[in-house]
């Protein structure tokens, strides 16, 4: 096995604790260095980080992927949120290219407009964002998150890419949520499978009748628990409306703050659901993209 010639260093006083700081110990190029230090990121991800001036060599932002490195230099990788030039209220853009946008949405932010709210939505904010480059630019909805659910979402920049993403949505590599549920689950892990049906009152419920509703499969694993709550990793095999919320209710341990599906407590004043990890194949470049967001502090504070 080839030894790792690039040693990580402790951040200095001018570097945020969330930044990554490395010392170069051999001659190489910047892209080669970054690929070695961030194997979980694709070349597209790394090029975006370079483009957004999040990579500093000896304290100076560097955007050229073939920038030469020599022993003794320091490379700092800034956090995406810390280096975002124009943050938007209610969301942060964590990846963008000419085909799509991936965001981290706050709880309380609508994915798209409704009859009651048309202005302050992720869709409207991103529409204005892309029009700054070209007034004719547009964005297109790929999927949705409930208003009170935070986390990862993506939008397409053309109808063609929207269609490609929606057609391959069932084949998305990873869609992982974090849920805080009431009480301690009797089994630390397992799978819930049912057919989901939506009533005229817009409430989704489970059925075991294959002729009634859409098949939904949810895998879950308890990460932390105490007498009152459980922090549960939820992996979706299918992506149905309110799937996680309904299946946690089916287990008898609804998501906290989810009165619609049986919760009687709301200790963090929000729905205890967060879209944590999203991994998919880029519909145009065919590269595998992986995104992971921080666990909300309100979740961890309960444990």
Short description:
With 303 residues, the chain is of the alpha+beta class. The chain is built from seven helices and 18 strands.
First-residue to last-residue Cα separation: 40 Å
What is the assigned CATH homologous superfamily of the largest domain?
Pseudouridine synthase
Uncertain runs? 1-17, 81-85
Mean pLDDT: 87
User: Total strand count, please?
Assistant: 18
* CATH architecture classification name of the largest domain: 2-Layer Sandwich
Number of domains: 3
Shape: globular
Question: Helix proportion of residues, in percent?
Answer: 10-25%
Total of DSSP H or I helical runs spanning 4+ residues: 7
Structure report:
The chain is α+β, with helices and mostly antiparallel strands and 303 residues long. The protein folds into 3 domains: 7-81, RNA-binding S4 domain (Structural Genomics Hypothetical 15.5 Kd Protein In mrcA-pckA Intergenic Region, Chain A, Roll); 86-167, Pseudouridine synthase; 174-275, 2-Layer Sandwich (Pseudouridine synthase). The chain is 17% helix and 32% strand. The protein has helices spanning 30-37, 43-51, 80-83, 122-131, 159-167, 243-250, 297-300; strands at 7-8, 20-23, 28-29, 55-57, 60-61, 68-69, 74-77, 91-96, 100-105, 140-141, 150-156, 174-182, 189-198, 204-207, 214-225, 229-236, 273-281, 288-292. The strands form 3 sheets. Strands 8, 9, 10, 11, 12, 13, 14, 15, 16, 17 and 18 form an 11-stranded mixed beta sheet that branches. The longest helix has 10 residues, at 122-131. Mean pLDDT is 87; it is low at 1-17 and 81-85.
């Amino acid at each position: 096995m080839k030894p790792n010639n690039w040693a990580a260093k402790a951040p200095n006083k001018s570097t945020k604790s969330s930044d990554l700081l490395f010392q170069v110990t051999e001659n190489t190029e910047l892209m080669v260095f970054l690929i070695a230090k961030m194997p979980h990121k694709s070349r597209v991800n790394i090029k975006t980080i370079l483009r957004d001036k999040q990579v500093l060599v000896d304290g100076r932002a560097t955007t050229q992927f073939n920038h030469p490195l020599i022993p003794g230099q320091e490379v700092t990788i800034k956090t995406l949120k810390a280096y975002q030039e124009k943050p938007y209220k209610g969301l942060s853009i964590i990846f963008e290219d000419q085909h799509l946008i991936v965001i981290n949405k706050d709880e309380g932010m609508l994915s798209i407009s409704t009859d009651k709210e048309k202005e302050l939505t992720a869709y409207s904010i991103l529409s204005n964002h892309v029009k700054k480059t070209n007034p004719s630019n547009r964005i297109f909805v790929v999927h949705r998150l409930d208003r009170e659910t935070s986390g990862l979402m993506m939008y397409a920049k053309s109808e063609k890419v929207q269609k490609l993403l929606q057609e391959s949505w069932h084949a998305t590599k990873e869609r992982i949520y974090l849920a805080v549920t009431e009480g301690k689950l009797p089994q630390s892990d397992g799978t819930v499978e049912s057919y989901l049906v939506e009533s005229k009152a817009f409430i989704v419920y489970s059925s075991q009748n294959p002729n009634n509703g859409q098949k939904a499969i949810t895998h879950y694993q308890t990460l932390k628990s105490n007498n009152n709550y459980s922090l549960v990793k939820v992996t979706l095999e299918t992506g149905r409306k309110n799937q996680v919320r309904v299946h946690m209710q089916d287990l008898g341990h609804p998501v906290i703050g989810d009165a619609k599906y049986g919760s009687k407590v709301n200790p963090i004043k929000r729905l205890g659901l967060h879209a944590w990890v999203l991994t998919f194949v880029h519909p145009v470049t065919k590269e595998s993209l992986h995104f992971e967001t921080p666990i909300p502090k309100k979740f961890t504070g309960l444990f």
